[in-house]
Amino acid sequence: MADTAATNDLPQESGEEAADYSGPKYHAQQKVLCIDTNNNTSDDAFAPLYEAVIRKSELKYIDPTTQKILPNRKRGRGRGRVGAATVDALDQNTNDLGTGLLQEWCHHVHFNGWNSRWDRWVTERDIFENTIENRKRLSENSGKVARSQPKQKEETKKRKREAATTADNDAESSSSPLNRNLQLITRACELPFTLQTVLCDDRDNIAVKVHPPPILSASCSSKQQQRRNNKKAITMLHVIPAPTSIVDLMGQYVQAKKQEDLETFANYHRRLQRDLSGNSSCSDGGVGEESSMDVILTKEDLKMNKKKRKEFALSILALVDASLPLFLLYAEERDQFTKLMAQFAKEDDKQSDNDHQTPKRQPSHLYPAEYLLRLFVKIPYLLSEFDLKKNNPASILLADEKTQDFARFLSELIVFIQTRVDECFAGNYQALEVDD
């Protein structure tokens, strides 16, 4: 007891306190209020408190600078933890004040409602008695399951609500007539592999620059002169006007489909006459021909298909003329387009002076079928961004019947071009030197 009294009566030097060996202020299983030392960034006088229970108490060393509890030395093999050398010195009965460390009572607390992984050692300065006055500082999360779980639950619920709202908006937008019509046309614009290959080859021929081999001659006195001679690169451009233009191709399409409709109509009526004469009942050929018929056309159907295909062809030509200079040209082709259109405009003006009925030539009269493939890729964008937003009452997307007819004829045109790849894509290119 004398030793304990002597120790407690030691004078304090340079702001340091002697170790307190009088006993802990709190005992095991006592209910207290505790500060969350890991997340506390404010003053202890205003920090929120949490309900806790003391598990055990021990004397531990405190760093006087940071006021943090130093871990115990790791016994057995291996090196000691942080502060192990200092603890070793203290184990050799060195004076507490000489080492600069303090020894205080610390308590291992468990926060009520929290997982045991949040249990920690805290000093008595971080613990408050469970009084009515102190309970006014209780945190909103005090007594809840885990500190991070309420936030995680709220964020998860928020993400689920946002995902559900997005899904509802997508479902609502996809179910709207405009989006259904746009999706129908988008599916109709999908190119088969054969035409995709043609489109990729056309891009490589124009966009990829080819460098000729270096020219080595006696006239090149220096390497700098050789580099100047080799600066030009070669690219390929379409020969304009093309032998078979987009207008020619659309005319062939309309004529070919008209002929197919006439043949279908004639076959149907021939079969019908055989049925009326009774020959079809004893003829295997009549039955086979009837089973191979996919569509039955009347005279009204012939007239309607002819009219609608012409309207479709005119719509495609109008899209080509309007979008080609803006969306269907590579950068290497723009100078060629500007020069050619200026040249053809002068020629058309001269012809119009002699013959006032001669129409001016549009891009669809000059450019080949490769540009029609480029248009197919852009049609959904053009219809949704320009045709619809201009409040055009005749917009294709505003009427289901127009959309279905446009998509049907568009699929027909793609199949028509695919079956005539060699005829439609002659590959007439010309080499042109450009700056690297």
TrEMBL record:
Entry superkingdom: Eukaryota
MSL3 chromodomain-like domain span: 107-136
Residues passing through the membrane, by range: 312-331
Keywords: Chromatin regulator, Membrane, Nucleus, Transcription, Transcription regulation, Transmembrane, Transmembrane helix
Cell division in keyword set: no
SUPFAM superfamilies recorded: Chromo domain-like
One BP term from GO: chromatin organization
One cellular component (GO) term of this entry: histone acetyltransferase complex
Annotated segments matching region Disordered: 1-22, 138-178
Gene3D superfamilies xref list: 2.30.30.140, MRG domain (1.10.274.30)
Stretches with biased composition (Polar residues): 1-11
Residues covered by the MRG domain: 235-430
Subcellular location: Nucleus
Name of the molecule in the record: MRG family protein
Organism: Skeletonema marinoi
